[in-house]
User: Fold these one by one.
Assistant:
Number 1:
Amino acid sequence: MKIRLKLSKLSPWLAWLIGMGVVVAAGVGAGLIVFWKGLSVTNLTDLIPWGLWITIDLSSIAVSAGAFSLCAAVYLLGLKRFQPVARTATFIGLIGYSMALLTLLMDIGRPDRFWHAVVYWNKHSLLWEVTMCVTLYLAVLALESMPIFAQFEWLKKRWPKLSGKMSHVHHYAPYLAVIGLGLSMLHQSSLGAVYGVLKARPFWYRPDVSVLFIISAVAGGMSLTVFASMLSARLTRRVSVDDSLLERVAYFIGWTLVLYLYFRFWDALSMTYTYTPGRTEGLQLLTRGPLSFNFWAGEILLGIVAPMVLLLYRPTRTSQVWRMLALLLVVGGVVAYRWDTNISGLMIVLTYLPGEPIVEYTHYFPSLIEVLSGAGVVGYGLLAFSLGVRYLRVVDHRAVEAHAEEKQLTEPATTD
Amino acid sequence: MSQSKMNRRDFLKITAVGVTALAGAQVIRRAKASEPTPASGRKWAMVIDQSLCNGCGYCVMACRAHNDISPEITWNPVLEAGQVGDKKIYLPRPCMQCSQAPCVDVCPVKASHYRPDGIVMMNYDRCIGCRYCEVACPYGARSFNWKAFTEQNPAVPEWGQPEVARRPRGVVEKCAFCYQRIDRGLTLGMTPGVDPDATPACVVVCPVGARFFGDLNDPESNVSKLLKARTSYRLRADMGTGPRVYYLSATEENA
Amino acid sequence: MPKLERLIIAVMFALLAAGITLVVAQAQTQQPPQPTNSLTGDSCVACHKDIYDTWQSGAHGQSLTDPVFAESWNAQGKPGACLVCHATGYDPATGSSEAEGVACTGCHSPIPPNHPTDNMPIDASPDLCGRCHSDPRFATENWKLSAHYQRSMTCSVCHDPHSAGMKSVAGAINTSADASGLCANCHKGVMQNFPTSKHAEAGVTCVNCHLGFNVGTTDVTDFFSAHKAPDHSFVPTLDTCNKCHTNQMHAPGESVAAAAIAIEESGGTPTPLPTPVATPIPLVTNQPVPVSPFGFAGLAGLLGVVGGMVLSPWLERLYRHLNNKEGRKK
């Protein structure tokens, strides 16, 4: 009886925090096991060395792409009215990139040597380029997020000067946006090119993988930003959003999906012509094989076509529930695309013995430790975002406007 | 006025000195880089005669012993490659030491790099274990250390004694043409491919003499002569990786 | 200054000078190892302990201490002629040997002056082993008749020179009680058909016909007495067949069964399984591992729940519309 009473006193917010806390704690425990025992606790093999963690890493970076696209829109294209959304996106970006780094730290065989890529260069390596860009972009995101942290009430009271200085970084936002745009264009596509330049894997070896990666990242990133904003607004009254802004962004996402579908269509169709060992089997894995549900239902139907229709058709776009559903589907589709790309190429084992290459298959399913640690990282992301909504008002469109008013009062008229 | 003239003169002096210093540094750096290693000027290659190989796996054991490899990893597996007549044919597959190695292109920290003599070397102290090279290798020649190898090596001392350090957990390893034997042999004046102590362990131990090793830049070496005399092929040469391991086919006549 | 004070200062200074000199001199006396004659056969174990252990547990290491030998040697009055092989570096003039048993310098000599910079010499050819193992009683000259020798194989292809036993290839020996596993490892082609033969069924293995071991015997000493090695020409002769099939000579028919029964009664050795090639490629199949239809159905079901919840107003409307069409009143 007593316990039931206690539970009923638990506010949803507290329950959420505790729930996520448990997930993060489990993730930390699993992560410690990984650091202690090494990667033999995963189901990764020499044939499939990249699995769930790399997918989470790729997906986190993809859905953080809202930051660069919206900041570019606001500060470089002059679409100032989207600034509140850009603010949310920047915060999501910071969380997303930190999630990616956490996952990568577990995934590389020598976490103690994570700094090697920054010190020892191989300019020919796309993965090196990705590492450098991600490191630099994380710094850019941190700087771009400083005004957000500066709004933290506790910080404002305790260290007002520091808070002021951090706020002032906002002045450099256009420059940071340019740098961020450049870095993001580089590494978002390079992540696709990491797969696309490997001649050893015929299913991956094509130049448009990088294009698909960046387009899906832009779509997924903006979708997550808008979805997170809308969800936060629904869940708490502290947060208020300007729905017209979000509706415009959703409209843009709809057209991005059209572009994405176009590229995906030709990408897949071009692979059906003439039998190429390794490549044809890869496509068959997606269209007919074990990944077919992921591909047709997850990626194409629910990941691109349905949200595209929902977001371009005004009645559904203006409806809150339909729009949120569509945006969530886009994010799911982007994650599914990265999982499918990674796993399909690795599942194909091409022989190198003389004669026509024979195609064999291997398989992979993540182990419990992988799932727990991956869930822990995702839980950390959700937790961090929730705390940001609650204490840093990252989704509060009023907060930005108020701040902008403040600035206008104290500074002379600047470019608008 | 005179002050600015002095400043300009000083500036020019400083610039001149700086440029000279930079140029000097470049010269020194280039000179150091071209310091001859024991093996520069060579182009190592391995030739494997499939008409002789009987799949006994001695090369696997010798490699495991001399390079202190865990029993769960094989740098040089022996694969079944069909049959000729009713004789089964085998194909031992060391690292191809490609001249256009995908693994060297993709390593983010240049742990995988070329040596002047063509061997694709691994710097195990630099490797971060990202496994990109493993994904990129068309021959599956690389193995990741999922576990640390702490037990006694079962192939030692019967098949040889370890000549290189054991790799730690979390790095990718592969065959390196027993560079330790080559380098040591060269400093002692031996000829790799001819003197057993300077030749890769797999070549030395083969009981039927199916493996050969030598310098392709030397037209008188055993590998050069073999490749001139007999038709050879390389694995997936169409991919442009430029492998350095040549295979002599088994035919009905010589199998 | 009084003389005593001077003396005390001088002594202190002298001690200081001596101390510094001592430290400097000790640092300098760390020279590289002395050349020539410093490495003897006894120094090997310091670096090569694992080889030493293998050697000690085998016939080469125990050639002097083996009880069969020791008994026979003592009974004959400890003749020095035996030590030429059973000890290392036996000097008949002085009657002393460098080491007991067939020790390191028995095969690896002369020791180079700057080992380990220079390798220990080794002559892998049968001539080195033949120094002891060519005694006519060994009858190992027939090794030179074998195809193995003619294809330039050495003794160490099959024999581990340190343990003086057979080489083991990843389980080859484990699958066979005798050395036949090693034969099967190289002669894989033969092993494709032999296991289904009548000889194999009866428990005959490679070493019975090609080395002359008695069927069912795994103990080498059972076969030969001291100094007699199996016939290393590996060529079976008529004598080999006659070991079991004497009764069938000139009398076919019933005796076939008798021969077979005789062999089976004597035990026989199971045919060694052919050693698999060293190809560790894990988890590869020729078709992709299919996802069970239930898996797909489950996923579709999950999506259906979410989709259904969103679409429920329209689904209900559709249901009512369909019902109305059938003429039922609402």
Number 2:
Amino acid sequence: MTDEGFESDDVVTLEQGAGGKGMRDLVSGILTAGFPDDSLDIGREAMDDGAVVPIGDRNVVFTTDSHVIHPPFFPGGDIGRLAVSGTVNDLAVMGATDVRALSSAVVIEAGYAESDLERIADSMAKTCREADTAIVTGDTKVMGHGDLDGIVVNTTGVGVADHVVGDDGLSPDDVLVSTGEVGRHGVALLAEREGIEFGTTVESDVRPINGVVDRALSVAGADITAMKDPTRMGLAGAASEMATKGGVGIELRQDRIPVPSDVKGASEMLGLNPLQIANEGIALLGVKPTAAADVIEALRSHPDGQDAAAIGKAIDDEHGRVLLDTGLGTRYLREPATEPAPRIC
Amino acid sequence: MSDREPVPGGPTGGVRDASGDTNALEFRDPEKADALAQRAEELVADIDADEISIMHVCGSHEQSIAKFGLRSMLPDGLDLRMGPGCPVCVTDMPEVDEAVALANAGVTIATYGDMLHVPGTSLSLSEARAAGADVRVVYSAAEAVDIAEETDDDVVFFATGFETTAAPTAAIVRNDPPENFSVLSAHKYVPPAMEVVAAMPETDVDGFLAAGNAATITGWGLFEELVEETDTPITVGGFEPLDILAGLVVLLRDIRDGEETVRNAYPRCVTERGNEPAQKQLWDVFTTESGEWRGIAHIPDANLVLQDEYAHVDAREQFEIDTASLAAGGSSLVDDCICGDIMAGRADPTDCEMFGEECTPEDPVGACMVSSEGTCKIWHEYGGRPDL
């Protein structure tokens, strides 16, 4: 298995697309290994949610994201809403809540229903209005039937940040704040795919979060020390990355983490950990302890931040690792090695 | 015969969390857990020993202990470790080789998912499948029979697990499966292994927490003989956090009092006599044979093999299984794997230099990193003894 792996080392595997260590190795080892140096403070090498390109005296944040989710329509959202939210949110968690422009590149399989395309486009338009931004340029390609599974949507975004917030800025004692409930997107998708019904339908949390994040930045500014949107690898993945990059440990309290009861129930049935599955409508913030109460109050003043909660803190111990106080004892919370299922965003 | 009174402060019924959330799960109440941990600490203090070693023998126990971080609640001086409680992990390489050889010979192999990635001498079933063999993952013995019913080709169910899966295998064998169906049994029987491990000087077990799931079939009465032979108290425990903590308290009380006896800390599921029809079925179909448990020891009467009467369903009788071609040629790292020592309770995963480095769930070297019941896989996910 190690010498002659059951998956060849020579081809790209699904696991390498899942956003964890496998993907980071693929990107830095092959994809970007020979790219010219970008000489940016927060550029490619930082592997943050976006790059910061100083233009004049402004910090322009630049990011891109391709979306391949299956199925394209799911409880609580669709690929169009996801494509706009995904890029807006990557900008927002860099501090660029003022999203100036988006591009949209769409690759469609021949035979795709125009009515579905229309639904997706309508959804993108609606989501842009929620995020107070616009799609200003784009590209459309069609591939042969069978050359692609349905539709791929790529969006790129440009935003401006007053305070650039990286994912590496945590210091010991910083409070970890979640802007909302955890676990909805991944469970909604998996339940839909597996055809499992739980009495109630779990809906994805997919939504643009630049508005709610802006509330926090306006009251706390530089007291927000780190941000990340806990997408594919879930809260555990985002927290692990923030701990590693910040050179701190993180201690989370399970009883403080807002997990909706339908997500809890569905996770038990599916054998999932809600802390390790995808979210598309929340951010994880590191906040100076003196500003934590104000930040939570500000977040809760926004409709998308009503479940905001302090869920843990950074510690000067166990550097690079995340601990979970289960309410009984304490254990490690690991970044999932692979996401529970591919094509979730 | 000792008393079987319920544990004071132990799990008795449902609890709601502070928010009144109706989804709150029973048997995870932090206050009760703290009280039990406190009781354990007092008992450990009462016992005049540098270290008390309690061994459990079930991957599901380890899952719960690690997932809820229970070790961090336990007092210093109480060492709670897993013994030979992962049937996949103790399956010996030659047993995997038999399945691989059959698969390579063109037989359809149906088995539980964990078995796919367990290393054989040179190949795992997953590697055989990648090379073209027909290897299917099933979730039950019945599903393997379904596969056989849909084809004329030979289908062999590579059967693994303790009593909890051996009983359903026995039911299938007795139920006139199709002629093209047979069973390659790697089923294991835990009590003899507990006896061997208890006798190992380096493990030095003061008490066993026995697996409540297997005991639902065997009954707790089964362990009385084992207690007599090992002079080691045994408590049968369930799998929720409060079940485990309550089981430990009961066991510590017996260790303190020098009571070598069996107790049942899982009375809502386990009875003295267990599931007698299932036992009858099990022993009608299977008998025990001595054999190697991977890396641990040669264990007398702990492998479950089919009785002669069922030779027509026994893959070892139905096929000439030639494993000679599967000569060593696998990973050289396997030689450094300390899975056996971990399964015997002689070492922790963190004692292994490959743990989390060369050996991960994505690219496992040993079976303990393959199975969800394996100590290494569990510790890799949740950590073991936190050093806080």
